[in-house]
Write a structure and sequence with these properties.
The chain has one helix at about 10, and strands spanning about 15-20, 20-30, 30-50, 55-75, 80-85, 85-95, 100-115. By secondary structure, it is mainly beta. The chain has one domain (about 10-115): Jelly Rolls. Strands 1, 2, 3, 4, 5, 6 and 7 form a 7-stranded antiparallel β-sheet that branches.
Amino acid sequence: MRDFYDDERRIKGIANYVTALSFLGSKVGKKGIFKVKYFTGVKTLGHIRQKEDKNLKFRISFHVSEGKAKLVMVNEYGIKTLVENHAEGEMQVFLPKGKTRLRLVGARAFFELTLERI
């Protein structure tokens, strides 16, 4: 599969382009847990719809053991990288009014991700 890691057109798009040896994930309430092996491509993890501009807080644990991966926000204003390869802790993110997609982008990546909206 082609490397989509820096392909802005594919990252902004609505289609998922995924190859993975293993992609295990679960979402309960506002928390998502993912364990992934050899992920290449772009995948939407969720949508956030805002009626007004707002700052949201997330608790994140993101550890890439091989390859590279990042979590991005995509909306009408463009692409914003939230984390790349490693992150641990809480972060505050500005989300504009409207629809924002959380997308995972990777290139031959082995990683674990826990993301919770707090």
